[in-house]
Amino acid sequence: PQTIYLEDYTPFGWRIAEVHLTFRLAPHATRVLSRIRFDPAPDAPEQDFFLHGEDLTLIRAAIDGAEITPALSPQGLRCAVPDGSFTFETEVEIAPAANTALEGLYMSNGMYCTQCEAEGFRKITYYPDRPDVMATFTVRIEGTEPVKLSNGNPGGSGNGYAEWHDPWPKPAYLFALVAGDLVNHPGSFTTMSGKEVALNIWVRPGDENKCAWGMESLIASMRWDEKVYGREYDLDVFNIVAVDDFNMGAMENKGLNVFNSSCVLASPETSTDANFERIEAIIAHEYFHNWTGNRITCRDWFQLCLKEGLTVYRDSQFTSDMRSPEVKRIGDVIDLRARQFPEDQGPLSHPVRPESFQEINNFYTATVYEKGAEVIGMLKRLVGDDAYAKALDLYFDRHDGQACTIEDWLAVFQDSTGRDLTQFKRWYSQPGTPHLSVTEDWQDGTFTLTFAQHTPGQQDAQPQVLPIAVGLLGPNGDEVAPTRVLEMTETRQSFAFDGLGARPVPSILRGFSAPVVLERATSASEKSFLLAHDTDAFNRWEANRDLARACLEAMVTEGTEPDDAWLGALEQVVRDDTLDPAFRALMLALPTQAEMAQHLHANGVTPDPDALYAASESLRNAMAARWSGWLGDLRAACTVDAPYDPGAGQSGKRALGGALLALLTRLDGGAAAQAQFDAADNMTLQLGALGCLVQAGTEHAALARFAEQWRGDRLVMDKWFALQVAATAPENAATRAEALTRHPDFDWKNPNRFRAVFGSLAMNHAGFHARDGRGYRLLADWLIRLDEKNPQTTARMCSVFQTWRRYDNARQALMKAELERLAAKPGLSRDVTEMVTRLLG
Length: 841
Ligand code: DPP
Ligand code: ZN
Hints:
By secondary structure, the chain is of the alpha+beta class. Among the domains are: 1-181, tricorn interacting facor f3 domain (Immunoglobulin-like); 297-429, Neutral Protease, domain 2, CATH 1.10.390; 435-514, Immunoglobulin-like (Sandwich), CATH 2.60.40.1840; 713-841, Zincin-like fold. 42% of the residues lie in helices and 21% in strands. The protein contains 27 helices and 31 strands. The strands form nine sheets. The protein has an eight-stranded mixed sheet with strand order 6-5-9-3-2-12-15-14, with no helix packed on it. Strands 17-18-19-21-20 form a five-stranded mixed sheet, covered by helices on one side. A hairpin with a 5-residue loop joins β2 and β3 (30-40). α25 (791-798) packs parallel to α27 (830-840). The mean pLDDT is 98. Diaminopropanoic acid (DPP) binds next to β20 and α2. The site of diaminopropanoic acid has 9 residues, from β20 and α2. Keywords: Aminopeptidase, Hydrolase, Metal-binding, Metalloprotease, Protease, Zinc. It comes from Salipiger aestuarii. GO terms for molecular function: alanyl aminopeptidase activity; metallopeptidase activity; zinc ion binding. Pfam families: DUF3458, DUF3458_C, Peptidase_M1, Peptidase_M1_N. This is Aminopeptidase N.
């Protein structure tokens, strides 16, 4: 496969004012007619006329009305064109019903839909399919489907046709078309300047009762973006469509967002609190893209973080405002460590702005998205909130309607703050997770912290700009120096705090102010002190997490008993009614076995998945036994006596109650869980109880009843598939996953269902890493099979092998053999070829 390089960028030789498209829909033979006016671009280098096009049957092509015979290749079309402006017309035929890759125009349950990001539009018609070519689109859809949607505002419609016009110039990746037998959940929003916008969530008949939350979240997002960023919506309508077969979470097509149904449909009976929160966040994310992504887009795909890092950052601000900022921050850091750290520290490591790729779909990663958002958070911490707000105003003013680069983004900050961001820019170009070590010194009332940074595995890494938020606590636990952001720019750098009466205890990297690994040799007693007293909620949680990791590490490597002192300190927090229940639930959650494997590996210890599983079980049993006196009462106190509400208040209580139930189950063999399961009137309680029963091994009847109750609900059945693989004992995981692949409802071509089984297998750490290699083999068998239908989802799932070099030689050999078996498969997709090559490289 060909490698594309950032440094090879050249602008397209023509400009497009307007695109006219006509679709004559038919499942196996859809005709797409396009008429495009091309004008020479004044500053572009001279070049051949080339349009992308893949899997298209060309019926006819013409320039200024005269038919031509262009040269065709599997990548596109080339032909001679006149010197000045000209009109280019094509008619192509495509087969959406045969499109299982779910890129371009495809069908899901009889409904037509599209996914064009990143390079799907070239599977619809011949076009310069690159984000820096922006044009207005006029679209006519002909077909018998009752609902026919595209971007922009509705135009004429009548018997068998509908027209749409999008007045905002956009790149082709934001094109969308949907047609089918759909029903809508309507809403409306009045913008800050008094414009009325019609809102709709379009779903399959039967799903109408699952749209209210999505609509509420959309309206909240629109209001928030006006209030916080001053951004107003710019069309007469905003449509969202739910699609069952979708590779990603959702897509921000202009005025017509398309969502994986799992990321928009919600009802209390069928969705958990976590689902509700995630839906709220994704609706916001896609809506926020209207400005950060659509009005201002990316020059090329290397700049993906320009829109994604910023939009993830914006959606995290939104969630913090809607819920608890502390809880959101802790959740984000858990997620960053679980998904981005392994990527950054393994063979898939790449900069936030990659410099080369073979298949861009492989770079929709946690590094581009989540580390990209961390970089924005650091920038804001460094320049301050007011300067950030000013810079964003300038960004929108200066670049509206343009396709931009990271250089443009940073120039806005440089120009509006006067700050030199040359060194800061390394965050976009240097891969790897920096490690930050710290030593301290105390003399004559002055406390000095000396930091050193280095990035393991990256020989060429230059020192990064690190905003290190630090506060100091006095011996009695009072804060003696409030949070101050230290700006570290050197490899080694000291910062002094003077005028102190007694040696303080430092609270370092508050709020996780930079995405680094903090290496600090602190005593357990100091961590317990921070756990008890830190005024920074994140660091309080972090102290607990450190203690939990240390405890599990000692249990695994030295065979010690669980740490009494820590459990005592943790108990205080968990039972402290003045604290947010959601925070207490997070404190109660142990590091996952995968997190422990990462931690041990960083400490030079080869992780043994079986030993990690055993230690985590025995720690949980010890917690349950030790706290048996109050677990039941505290759980009872978490009961919600009000109609279901997915907001932070109730869901925090249910989260704590659920964590306590999991411990109680270790004492009562599942009696309380069974009772909760039987009485549950919402999915959070029902699924939480079922998970406990699976863990206890007493789930048989409940699983059957659950399946009976929810047979007709695809999204709930995904949970049924996922839970039994994720929560079962490791020795059963692969067997169970394998058995589920033979279940009549295992529709493996549906990405959600495939991920339900195999994503969950990978999450069952000791089960996936079964010593005999069954887990690896089963997954590889299915990846080989799925690649023929859906390369994108297959490639995405390959990343579960990214940590393969952490494990013992025997497991490494087994994983390597499976990767080599995948690599050797004839006809392997470009997507998976690139992934496997990088994994093995
Ligand atoms: N651009 C999309 C998103 O992140 C990709 N699925 O929202
Ligand atoms: Zn996005």
